[in-house]
Amino acid sequence: MRSTLKLAVPIAVAALALGACGTKGGETSAGGAGGSAKAACDQKIGMFGALTGPNANLGIYIQNGVNLALDDYNKKHADCKVTLENYDSQGDPTQAPALAKKAIDDKKVVGIVGPAFSGESKAADPAFNEAGLVTITPSATNPKLADNGWKTFFRVLGNDATQGPAAAKYIKDTLKANKPFVIDDASEYGKGLADIVRQDLGSAVVGNDTVQQKQTDFSASVTKVKSSGADALFYGGYAPEAAPLVKQLRDAGWKGTFVAADGVKDQSFIDNAGPAADGAIVTCPCVPADIAPDFAKAYKAKYNQDPNTYSGEGYDAATILLDGIAAGKDRSSMIDFVKSYDKKGVTKQLKFDAKGESSDIKVFAYTVQGGKFVSAGEIK
Questions:
Q1: What are the tens digits of pLDDT across the range 272-296?
Q2: CB–CB of 39/28 below 8 Å?
Q3: CATH architecture of the region 161-284
Q4: What's this model's pTM, rounded to 2 decimal places?
Q5: 238 in Cβ contact with 268 (< 8 Å)
C-alpha cells in the first residue's frame, strides 16, 4: 500500500483554515499565544511512529496529514521553509528511546508529531520531557500517558477513558449483546483499552483471553469464544493480529459481532481478513471524512485516496507546531505556545487542558462494508 502513495505532489489548500496566517516578509499572527513575531528559518518538525513494519499503514496515514500541513505552510513561507524529519519506530517500544535521543540531539527539531503508539510513547516521552521537546500525539490513546506530569506531552484526540466506555456502550445499547467476550493483545494500548471495556461491561462479560503481538494461530482463543456462547467479541489490539483472529473465528462458524478499536482501523485489516471482516465494528476518536470536507478534498487531490485513520489528527498536530514556528517559537518556548493554543483545526477545536489532553473529544463508530470502513456516526 505504501508504494501507491504520492508524497511529492504539491497542491493548494487555500480553502482550509490551516497553519499560521502568514504575511509578506515572514511576519505572522499565529493562533494560541497571540501577537506577531519573525518566523525562525531552517527549522524542523519530527514525525515519530511506524513507517515500516506490520503497523506501518497507521503511521503513513498520519505522515500524509503532516506532509499536507507542511505543503500548506511552506507555500505561505517559501523563503523560510520547514522540513520534516522522520523517526521510524516500526511501532516497537524498544526502538523508541534511541529514536527519541536522535530527535533531541538534532537542535533544529522544535517539536514532534507523535509518538504514534502508546507503548512507544511510554518509552520515549520521559526523554522528550527531560529535554523540553514538545510532543503532540495524534493517535496514542492510553489514558495513563497524561498522568506522568510530562510538561511536553499533548494529545489532539480523546483517550481510551472515553473510547473504552463508548465501545462498551455500543456493544450494550446498539448491538444489544448479552454475552460479550473480551480479548487483548497484552500491549500497553490493547490491554489498557480492553480493561476499560471489561470494567464497563461488568458482569455481562462471559469470558476473557489474552493473545500476543505477532501471534498467528488463535485456535485456543477461538475455542474459548465459541464455548462461551458469546454474541459479541471486543478485541483490544492492532490490525495484524485482528485479521487472522476474526478470520479463524468465522472459519470455525462463530456468528457474533466482532468489535475492535482504532488500532484495527487500518485497511490491512480488511484486506487480510477478507470476507470475514464484513460487519465488523471499529470505534475511533478520529473524525470521518465528511466532518472535514475541505481537508478531505485536499487530501484526495494529493494522495488520490480519502483521508484515513488519524490523517486529520496528524495534520492538526503538525499545524500547531508550524503555527509556533511562524510565531518565532523555538524548542523551549514552544511548550507555553502549545499550552495556550486555542484555534479551530480540521478535526476539532484545538485546545488542551492542564494535563495536555484535548478539550474537544468525540468517538465515532465505523462498520466494514464492501471492503471499506463506513462511518456509523458518533457514539454519544
A1: 999 999 999 999 999 998 888 999 9
A2: yes
A3: 3-Layer(aba) Sandwich (3.40)
A4: 0.86
A5: no
